[in-house]
Design goal:
The protein contains 19 helices and nine strands. With 504 residues, it is of the alpha+beta class. It has a single domain, classed as Orthogonal Bundle (Cytochrome p450). Helix 7 packs antiparallel against helix 8, helix 9 packs across helix 11 and helix 13 packs across helix 16. It is globular. The N terminus is likely disordered. It binds protoporphyrin IX containing FE and 2-acetamido-2-deoxy-beta-D-glucopyranose. This is Cytochrome P450. GO terms for molecular function: heme binding; iron ion binding; monooxygenase activity; oxidoreductase activity, acting on paired donors, with incorporation or reduction of molecular oxygen. Its cofactor is heme. It comes from Daucus carota subsp. sativus. Keywords: Heme, Iron, Metal-binding, Monooxygenase, Oxidoreductase, Signal.
Length: 504
């Protein structure tokens, strides 16, 4: 199986080395059109291409768009710049007006807004996620989903030797979980027959189109939107599907609130009820629009990230069986068989710190494959970055979190290797890395609000799956990241599952 994979990975590796080590400029700056042709040619594999550009240019690369198209971008993966932009001079680096245009699908939700609208949504979301009882609800929701949906499914496919897309399964799982937690309604997209859920199907197309919009002049993508062609055609169809889903959720939630018949969620943990209340305050004319925006942001923020992180993690484990056996050993030492069999793990929040090696392996996986590979910023006022680069008012800056994990002078000569050990101190504790170096969850005042929640889900899931099953990637199936704003696996994650026999 591994042998079958070798030729392909060697080809990819050699190719990567070749483009990265050559000193010739990777992009030509043409008159009038700038570097756009070369960029569009590489946008399907943007993250690796960008990593080479940033390596050649020592962490900062100035991209020139077409003449007068306002498309210049400064790409950076320089920790000093990242620290300055995300934390030290946070107020001068909002997402900016351009972000809202590109990511119009997110409306004025937490990811796309700045100033007051961002602050109130952040405060509301945080108050619920940090609530003392939130952890218990999360642990229970995740455990039940695994027991009632994931295990029956994996048992079924292992028994019949069926090939499945594990990324799709993780997306369904994360989707059901966030819907249960936020809407108090389990959509049961994860079940034996893997039902077709239009919303789930279209989200990846949207994310791909969002990246493309960064490198095409606004007038052109707007024209494409108007005449309904190319990626913009897919996008407008997707938008309808997404809105239909969200407005159904909203009317369902209204009924739930009116009848006071929330099934499981107590009032102080009810995030969608809190958003609804906020909607009337912030946008009394059109509260449903505000509510829609808040919901879609939280759905994308939770589902696509967690499922992407899990997919890369399990792929890395498959490539590194030694790490897998170490985790398996750690699980056996720390949990008793009864809790393992009942999927009732990490009952108390403190237990999250128990599996040090698993935590290290998850961090290592997020370092190499951060689910959110880019972060978009636009200075309010002209400024000079710590690297000496000048940035103009409203100019575009893209921080490449993907490239940060792949720079030798940030992580050392072995930066491309998967080594959980780099996260463990000599005393056997987790080594803390500053968030401007390990940027998977962003840093500063806009750092991810779901980090603990993500680790909780990933740990419960990883523990259960690793303990019960061994996963085999289908021979010859190509695994590459997609050119998108979320670092999904481009062709999915085709695997077969084998049940571990007792004591193995
Ligand atoms: C492995 C999983 C996750 C990763 C890698 C991740 C990563 C990130 C990143 C990079 C950002 C900054 C985005 C930006 O500013 O453009 C962010 C923000 C955010 N994340 Fe996560 N996230 C994860 C899981 C979650 C989960 C499960 C939730 C729960 C709903 C969540 C909620 C949020 C929210 C609300 C923000 C917006 C913060 C703000 O702008 O103030 N995330 N996350
Ligand atoms: C942040 O940027 C502004 C605008 O250029 C500048 O005036 C200010 O001095 C910077 N603040 C810090 C803390 O560097």
């Amino acid at each position: 199986m591994i042998l079958a994979f070798l030729p392909l990975s060697i080809v990819i590796f050699l190719y990567f080395c070749k483009i990265c080590t050559s000193n010739a400029p990777l992009l030509t700056d043409w008159p009038l059109v700038g570097m756009t042709p070369g960029m569009l040619k590489n946008v399907h594999r943007l993250h690796d291409f960008l990593t080479c550009l940033l390596q050649q240019s020592h962490h900062n690369f100035q991209f020139h768009g077409p003449f007068l198209a306002n498309m210049d971008v400064l790409f950076t993966c320089d920790p000093a710049n990242v620290n300055y932009i995300l934390s030290k001079n946070f107020t001068n680096y909002p997402k900016g007006p351009e972000f809202g245009k590109i990511f119009d699908i997110l409306g004025e939700g937490i990811f796309s807004s700045d100033g007051h609208l961002w602050e109130v949504q952040r405060r509301t979301t945080m108050s619920i996620f940090n609530h003392a009882q939130f952890y218990d609800m999360l642990q229970k929701t995740v455990g039940e989903k695994i027991e009632k949906a994931l295990i029956p499914l994996l048992d079924h496919v292992s028994k019949h030797g069926i090939e499945v897309d594990l990324q799709d399964i993780f997306q369904r799982l994360a989707f059901d979980n966030i819907c249960s937690l936020v809407l108090d309604h389990d959509l049961q997209s994860l079940s034996l027959d893997l039902p077709y859920i239009p919303y789930q199907k279209v989200v990846p197309d949207v994310e791909e189109a969002m990246l493309y919009r960064h490198f095409v002049p606004e007038s052109i993508w707007k024209l494409q939107r108007w005449i309904k062609s190319g990626k913009e055609k897919t996008l407008s169809k997707a938008r309808e599907t997404i809105d239909e889903f969200l407005y159904t959720c909203i009317s369902m939630k209204r009924k739930q609130v009116a009848l006071k018949n929330s099934e499981h969620i107590s009032a102080e943990l009810d995030l969608s009820a809190a958003y609804m209340e906020l909607a009337y305050k912030e946008n009394p004319e059109n509260p449903d629009k505000f509510f829609r925006d808040a919901l879609v942001n939280i759905m994308v923020g939770a589902r696509d990230t967690t499922s992407t992180a899990l997919s890369w993690f399990f792929w890395l484990l498959w490539k590194n069986p030694r790490t897998e056996s170490k985790i398996l050993q750690e699980i056996k030492t720390n949990f008793n068989t009864e809790d393992l069999n009942n999927c009732n793990l990490f009952k108390k929040k403190e237990e999250m710190h128990k599996l040090v090696y698993l935590h290290a392996a998850l961090c290592e996986s997020l370092r190499l494959f951060p689910p959110v590979p880019l972060n978009h910023k636009a200075p309010k006022q002209p400024d000079i970055l710590p690297s000496g680069h000048r940035v103009g008012k409203n100019s575009k800056i893209l921080l490449s979190f993907y490239s940060m994990g792949r720079m030798e002078d940030i992580w050392g000569k072995d930066c491309l290797e998967f080594k959980p050990e780099r996260w463990i101190t000599e005393k056997g504790d987790i080594k803390h890395e500053p968030s401007y170096k390990f940027t998977a969850f962003n840093a500063g005042p806009r750092a991810c609000l779901g980090k603990d929640m993500a680790f909780t889900q990933m740990k419960i899931l990883a523990t259960t799956i690793i303990h019960r099953y061994s996963i085999q990637v289908v021979a010859g199936h190509p695994i590459v990241p997609k050119g998108s704003v979320i670092l999904e696996m481009k062709y999915g994650f085709r695997i077969r599952v084998e049940k571990r026999s007792e004591g193995k």
